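Example is below:
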Amino acid sequence: MLGSAVVRLATPPRAAAGRRQLVDGSLRAVLHPGAEDADSAAAGCSHKWRMVIAYDGTKFKGWQYQPSPPTIQCFLEKALIRITKLDRKELCLVGAGRTDTGVHARGQVAHFTTPFAYHCLDSFHSAINGLLPPDIRVREISAACPEFHARTSTKSKIYHYKIYNEAVMDPFHTNYAYHSAHKLNPHAMQEAANHFVGVHDFSSFANAVHNDRVRSPIKKISRFDVTKMDAIIQLEVEGTGFLYRQVRNMVALLIQVGREGLPPEIVPRIIAAKDRKELAKVALSAPPHGLYLMSVNYDKEILKPPVGSPPVSFGRTHQISRCKLLFY
């Protein structure tokens, strides 16, 4: 596993990529930009790359960079630094969403920049995943246009929240779903969820953030679906953006409605209050391990790669042309 210290490494070598043993035990090319896979750096020229990332957030302190305890961004930057020989300021890795400790992702999006371009992304893709721990995987890498920004170009985000609704918790869902032993009423939850749809001031559902960013509490939610799948109740919400812990706070209120301790009409009353204290009177924030960032959506135009870019990499598949095992 990669260390946590950020070290400025040597500038990219001109020679072709060497071979190095990676953490997963495989032997692959670690791509220093060389003649086979990358163009030499052009003065004043930068190239932007988009990644789609999945991770099990159980062991990590969220997305946002901090060296200790480690975060998702920290591990990705360490892998990119080792491969590209650039430092983190040059890479400028930016994620679409800053998921909290314990929150999972299927479709987190991030971008980074390099002063050189790659002809082929498959080997680069394999090298990154070879350097990452097994609970973080880059699913897709593609070239991005200069105007693309993982966070500010976002059109919408989709989150799932999973609730395991049986008397006894399935141990295989322990880290991936909230356990409610109370029988929930999904129809009442859906009725309450419908009140979130539209453009509202969600101040009542936002926790305080200790940074300098001032964000508008006005957000648009286009849909909020409650689906029962055997023991799992899945909440799926799509919106233009979300405030800090907004999704988990909305889920917490829906759980109270599902227990039939509160009527669905409580939702518009708490929205209208525009005061986080009003929600705190009736519900605590839902725990993080049931939450998943499923996808980040963009306009098609902003996703078009520059002319002459390498094909999108979805990872290599391995095939055996013929069986070499001996049968007796």
Observations:
- The longest strand covers residues 218-229.
- The helical segments are 72-84, 88-91, 122-131, 186-194, 246-258, 266-273, 276-280, 300-303.
- Residues 154-295 form a domain with the Alpha-Beta Plaits fold (CATH 3.30.70.660).
